[in-house]
Design a protein that fits this description.
By secondary structure, the chain is of the alpha+beta class. It has helices at about 1-30, 195-235; strands spanning about 40-45, 45-50, 55, 60, 75-90, 95-100, 100-105, 115-120, 125-130, 130-135, 140-145, 150-165, 170, 175-185, 185-190. The chain starts with a helix and ends in a 6-residue tail after the last helix.
Length: about 240
């Protein structure tokens, strides 16, 4: 009688666990919320063009603390900014190289100063705010002169890069904001930021779905452990 009851409970727990396991498979295929995002897909170590600008993606990898799916996916997006704004300052009484010649910077000790002089022995060259001066191989514009320093700025090419984490916002050279969404371990999608609301809503829905699936896995584990416990208990030796 004891073994017959144990067999019934064993089958019951087995059916419950198998049912939960089967439902997990169906749910993951048909009920898991899917991202519906329009953007530009970039493959690992590949190139992509956004608004006429070419970008290069590094190898997609897992962040520290995880391996083989245990860590978040990350990569680096790089490009050449042809119009990067450089700035620099030249201090009063300092020595500066202009066209391979050394000059001493001389600024008058005045409150409202707007000019300065470059001196080399008996040679002097005077510049004012708004003038262009050859500086470190560039045509730099003099933007401001004070009694302490001269401020310069110019544009030129510069290599830039940004790390892409899942859902991370980035601003590219066209001034547009995008966010990253990894569609797999070999590609990432750059999505315009106006779709972030849909992304966040789907992400929340997927978290809720995952919690429910984890609950079903708990039922599977408990059911099969209970079935094994019932079966093993039924076959324990009976005293007397």
């Amino acid at each position: 009688m004891q073994r017959r009851a144990a067999a019934i409970y064993f089958v019951f727990f087995l059916v419950v666990g198998a049912g939960a396991y089967a439902y997990i498979g169906v749910a993951e295929q048909t009920h898991q919320p899917q991202y519906q995002l329009d953007g530009t897909t970039v493959e690992s170590e590949g190139n992509a063009t956004l608004d006429g600008k070419q970008y290069t993606l590094s190898e997609i990898s897992h962040s520290e603390g995880g391996h083989g799916g245990g860590g978040a996916l990350v990569s680096e997006l790089s490009w050449t900014n042809e119009s990067f704004l450089y700035t620099d300052t030249i201090e009063n009484n300092s020595t500066v190289e202009i066209e391979n010649e050394s000059y001493q910077v001389a600024i008058a000790n005045e409150t409202d100063v707007s000019t300065f002089t470059l001196r080399q022995n008996d040679t002097t060259r005077e510049f004012a705010e708004g003038d262009t001066i050859p500086y470190e191989g560039n045509d730099a514009t003099i933007t401001n002169v004070t009694a302490a320093e001269v401020q310069l700025e110019w544009t030129g090419a510069k290599e830039q890069s940004v790390e892409l984490g899942e859902g991370q916002n980035v601003t590219l050279t066209n001034g547009q904001q995008y966010f990253a969404h990894y569609t797999g371990e070999e590609e990432v999608k750059l999505v315009p930021s106006n779709q972030y609301g849909d992304y966040a809503q789907t992400t929340d829905a997927r978290h809720t779905f995952d919690e429910r699936v984890n609950g079903l896995w708990g039922i599977v584990i408990v059911s099969f452990l209970s079935a094994l416990t019932v079966l093993s208990t039924a076959y324990l030796p009976v005293r007397g």
